[in-house]
Predict the structure.
Amino acid sequence: MTTTVPLSFDRLDQRGDHDDLCLHLGAYSHTCDSYYLAIDESPTASESLGADLARLLEQWRDQVEALKGTGGTAYLPYDFSDQCTAWLRVTSADGRDAEVTAGWSLVEGWSINPSDYVATAPEITDFKPLPDAQIECSLDDLSQCIALNAKAHAASQY
């Protein structure tokens, strides 16, 4: 049975590329910028913000899928700032259930290509969790939630 996972990463009203995205994780929410997605020049970057957000979320989903069966920890970035980055830490002890926690790292946003962040994720050794920014869910439900969020961005006109 699928349950609703209280996680979304959404575009706010057309506000340019600053304060135009919002992550919701349970009762926690965080407004951030799409600026580093807009200036991503890697071969995997696209020409539209909707496609860039979909690509980011598809990477999230791939990382969550990799935890199924074996467990482990994955880091999913959502805020790329000049001197730090914000990440979701997904931890699964059993390969079925997960704890998702929002937090920060001092890895600089400019050092990461959002369209291909996977190589940077292992560098997150200084993750600082935020209080009251945590949920628990199954990996299956989390993966499905992320996939639906990515699909909505891919179909967008922004």
